Amino acid sequence: MTTQPTTTTPTTTEPTTTEPTTTPATSQPTASYLTGRLAPVPDEIDAIDLPVEGTLPPELTGRYFRNGPNPRPGEDGGHWFVGHGMIHGIRLRDGRAEWYRNRWVRTTRFAGAPYVHERGVDLAAVPANTHVIRHADRILALVENGLPYEMTPELDTVGPCDFGGRLATAMTAHPKEDPITGELHFFGYGWAKPYLTYHRLSAGGELVESRPVDVPGPTMAHDFAITRHHVVWLDLPVVFDFDLVGRGMPYRWDDAYGARLGVMSRATGDVRWFDIDPCYVFHVGNASEDEHGRVVVDAVRYSPGAFCGFWPTIGGVANPAAHTGGAALHRWTLDPATGVARDEQLDDLDVEFPTINETRTGLTSRYVYAVGKDAIVKYDTANGTSRAHQTGERSPGEAVFVPAPDAGAEDEGWLLSIATTEHGAELLVLDASDLARVASVRLPRRVPAGFHGSWIPDEAPGA
Predict the structure, then answer these.
(1) Which of 147, 116, 148, 126 is nearest to 82 (CA)?
(2) Residue 283 among known ligand-binding residues
(3) DSSP H helical segments within 298-431, as ranges?
């Protein structure tokens, strides 16, 4: 294995920045999100011919990219969620792990541009640190408070993408691609009206629809869902607070706001709202329509107490999104005929980062995968059972499902997850049907616990 350090800063001269701030004096304690398994790495490296334990399936030919916050040395933005985006990439081909590399997403904020200025908000001055996807031959680094950034397959930054000038809002980090039409559904939210806007990209990547959605106020709308005929909104009581601006994430719990789920017709835009018990949801597993026309939503739900205990203390030596204390897999069944939402907890294990076989997005699906503090969990929602793959001292990241070619079963494929300790990391490859360990790739450095990623398969020989 050969490791080649590269520069830790852009090759162009960077203007002075006041965002994020420098780390407080050493007499003050270091923020927990800058230490332990969350601690950022100081530079970018390349490595080739990575060691493999077990046998990598030759069908896994492509790139696994995972995004997450990674402030530069000496920086502290005041919250885990606001560090500059860094994408870690592993190239697999024909049973080999050809390379690893990590690159900061070189946004205008990375170069010193402020998000808020005298003319308003600069949607390009964002950390781009939450997710990375491919749609219509574009690889996009995403964060929910601004524009996506286009990346190359080698993880060079191309620049911000507003889809030909048509996107005038932020773009969620959790868009949903319809497996039938190939369209990409997403939304933007913000502190000024319209607080919520729905968008739709064609399968070819053209922005073909933008539609405001009426909600009472500005909330932290992190995720949503689609079904075959609907979009499902999560209008939940974590609200924007101007008094918190400049102090990390300017959102707080508000009992007075209430909680509801909205079912919007994809054809007409009409929304039917369903009141639910107060809660918060960062991540949806899937949604679908059952044989009675009801909308079924599976998501990881935080009770008010769990969220309010978790939100102020994000950080620490373990991945906080995988050690939540009170976040569990739930199901809502929304009945348009009665206007009633039924809620049931599917398990009592603390989990986060639910994933599915994305060929089933918006359609009836049986399996949900999630991660806990030291385990990757598979839920069988048809029979109410679960099984777990224990990762020991390694903290597992989101488990991305990769379907096997010509798969006959929903769970026929593999799970990819970066598992990390304070001293090292590996890419785990599990059999998605039984969670058996298939192979692992030892990475040349520790990878900080982060957020979301994607498997980007090769589309043609030599890609």
Answers:
(1) 126
(2) yes
(3) 304-310
